[in-house]
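Bumping with the actual sequence this time:
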Amino acid sequence: MAQSSVPLKIPATDRKRVIVIGGGFGGLNLIRKLRHRNFQVVLFDKHNYHTFQPLLYQVATAGLHPDAIGGPLRYIFHSYDDFHFRMLKVTSIDPDKKMVTTTAGDLGYDYLVIAGGARSNFFGNKDIETYSFPIKSIPDALNLRSQLLENLEQANMTQNAAERKRLLTIVLVGGGPTGVETAGALAELRKYVLPKDYPHLDLSEMKIYVADGLKRLLPQMSEKASAKAQKDLEKLGVIIRLESMVEKYDGKTLTFKTGEKIDTYTVIWSAGVTSEVFPGLKPESLEKGRILIDEQCRVLNAKDMFAIGDIALMKTQDYPKGHPGLAQVAIQMGKYVGKNLSALDAGESVKPFKYLDKGSLATIGRGKAVADLPGHLFFGGRPAWWIWLFVHINYLISFRNKLLVLANWVWNYFTFDKGNRLIIRPFVRKDEPQTKAPVVQNVPEEAEIVH
């Protein structure tokens, strides 16, 4: 095994070492498959928990507590033999020396699996990156929740009609599952919950937009699903803007390339994702921000290195542009590599990875969802909603998470309420830089808010 120049403290072992970067769906399922195999496993992640990303929007819209969709990584793997977790950031990779450099030191590996997932893609627009709100992590979701609730509090106090309109306008950029599901949740919040919290606020002024540059919503799903989702959203009062490309956003006004402008303090960005590619990877192993892999999930032109999930690009006859950025792809790739790593280590041949498409789902609200299932089956309405509920409960990380989510959903369903409407944001001194522009007005000086 290669030796590090500034070694990261990991117990010595006679086993071969597998370093896994990322504790998402891919990394999680990979490690589970390696549990009873003769490897030392070292997991690196910037957070000490796994996030069930498909339900982040429910945290952002006050439907769930954050701990309902997260699980501590050390707890998940606490009974695993020769497993080691380190909460740190990987800064570079040296495929030739088989070395990973982190913020705490270097560590050599026998096998490396990159499962870092994806982050929001702002397409180089720094203003949009600065002023808009992504939903890719639990901190993102909590920040957005606080933004929405702070704006409502300000709208309830202001006497300025134009200011109130800007505070109450929300634009979701991106018509994929995140945009559609968040819009539906916000529309139901407006319909069922906010009238009780703000009885003197005219919520007919609260506008929710979904904007996308394509011709239809949910482009990765069938046309039936797309049309049904748009119809259900419009019934909930969501305004749809298709074939509308965003040009700029300055924190107060969103401008489309058509010239249309929308005054808003809240732009939720879900228009695209990109991968976090680590320095040190060879240029011939990369394409359009993703890592090229063969049909065994091995990184091209890199020895003993694998990539799985959103960060990986495997071109096959069925998927010439790579597999879709879905949790199921990461799960199946993780299980595949974990199952076959011992055989590959022994020099045995293994069958190529084959993705099993289990279908696509998106929910719009209570009893409203769309489902594309294998065999070109389509369901809409309540049957699709029940399927969506079952699938999401089933794939949560632990029994505790399943119980928490189910309890919240039952409560929300029967009470028409969402009990997680807490504004939680850190306060900063005036001399500290803000991470977002100050978009909430009339904030007391002693309670300056980070945006």
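The tokens above came from a reply further down the thread. Confidence is low (pLDDT under 50) at residues 428-451.
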